Amino acid sequence: MTDLTRLTAAALAEKLAAGEVSSVEATQAHLDRIDAVDGALNAFLHVNEHALTAAADIDRRRAAGDALGALAGVPLAIKDVLVTTDMPSTSGSRILEGYMSPFDATVVARARAAGLVAIGKTNMDEFAMGSSTEHSAFGPTRNPWDPTRVPGGSGGGSAAAVAAFEAPLALGSDTGGSIRQPAHVTGTVGMKPTYGGVSRYGSIALASSLDQVGPATRTVLDAGLLHDVIGGHDALDATSLAESWPSFAQAAREGARGDVLKGLRIGVVRELPDSGFQPGVAASFRESLAAMEAQGAEIVEISAPHFEHGVAAYYVLMPAEASSNLARFDSVRFGMRVTPHAAATVEEVMSATRAAGLGEEVKRRIILGTYALSAGYYDAYYGSAQRVRTLIQRDFTNAFAQVDVIATPTASSTAFRFGEMVDDPLAMYLNDATTLPANLAGVPAISIPSGLSDDGLPVGIQFVAPARGDAKLYAVSAALEALLQDKWGGALLDRAPRLGEGA
């Protein structure tokens, strides 16, 4: 039998629908893969003991002739920032260790209703704060391409699980690049939808005006298929957009076989010079642009003068929102509780609990955010950062008056080694320079593999579209993916070293 773990979600779904394989078989294959390699990778924090029962139920319904979703029976990994009723939801933090949610996040509920089989919760930087998954309270996740290197963050667990063939699909969350940057360093696909296009209900909040849930997959089509399942209006999320969306899977299919690139205007940001990127990253980016230009795309230089201030603005706004959101972890309502002495006051218990339960990076950002929101500093820092955010949004508006999409390298370098940036938070923060402007503006962005750098590690290219232009991203990305796979003779992951084994 074909190795079921090597199939794309689309290909596996076809075999399931045709009766060539059962969901129990597909789920068991992925559970066996997790058992074989995850001890070395640590991509999963929890494996779902009910997965085979859910898979058997899908098989029963299919045999009974029930109408099922396109992805029914396909295994799905879930970033631990999304709450689930049948598995712990910790957001990578000791303060929530063992916490069981009384409800599923909307995207999880929709995935279950569509027949996807939740196989586990993936590792992440604590409360999504980090770009390497080194800040997880439960140990780091390793990059399947090179176990001495990080898988990106904060959603490194989801990206590593997909890259290591432990799951064909995964859910992630993206506050400043936490889906796209891990995709860049693991040779996978990561999509950040338009803000409000996918429900955030049940996603443990980091920064509510920036967070967005999205898919992590191995192909653009798979991302579109999963996006079709989880997207759309949700009355439980006050920021959810009340409008209909086209099929993103159909957009990907049309992009892969159509003439999408002919006449497409692709913007390249003048303020992002090659000198700011690792040579192999810049070279791969230029090669991708050349491939699209050869198919009739027009490369247009655009100006986005305020992007250079994006990191500074983001690292005021995000900690400010985080300090407010994380105030709920107070030892009183849920989560761990540390009582320093028998007569401790509520304030003393709260202080002891947060000191023991929160990691250093989380504490750093809470302090930074609380300071930025304090009396006397609010206008100087938070107010100024909001004004910069507006200027970045205007940069996008001006750019999209000239071009259809914007292209950038997804990140400045390939996966860095463990420990390289732990003692230099600023260097870690600068890793998000190309991804976070899309979060500040609320526009959709996607990262797809663009090749290998000079060090043999994967790199990605990012496309950004105007708000609600998600379908355009799927079409353009699928077109380039097809061109590059023709060039490589297959998927980039096929060229990886023995993923996960021997790590």
Structural class: alpha/beta
How many distinct beta strands? 11
Q: Can you identify the CATH superfamily of the domain at 4-259 and 471-495?
A: Amidase signature (AS) domain
Query: What is the level-2 CATH architecture name of the domain at 4-259 and 471-495?
Result: Alpha-Beta Complex
Could you walk me through the main structural features you see in this protein, from its secondary elements to its overall organization?
This protein has 503 residues and is an alpha/beta fold. It has a domain at 4-259 and 471-495: Amidase signature (AS) domain (Amidase signature (AS) enzymes, Alpha-Beta Complex), CATH 3.90.1300.10. Helices cover 39% and strands 12% of the residues. The protein contains 16 helices and 11 strands. The protein has an 11-stranded mixed sheet with strand order 1-3-2-4-6-5-10-11-9-7-8, sandwiched between helices. Helix 9 (279-294) links the parallel strand 7 (265-269) and strand 8 (298-302). Helix 7 runs antiparallel to helix 8 and helix 10 (310-325) crosses helix 12. The two termini are 26 Å apart.
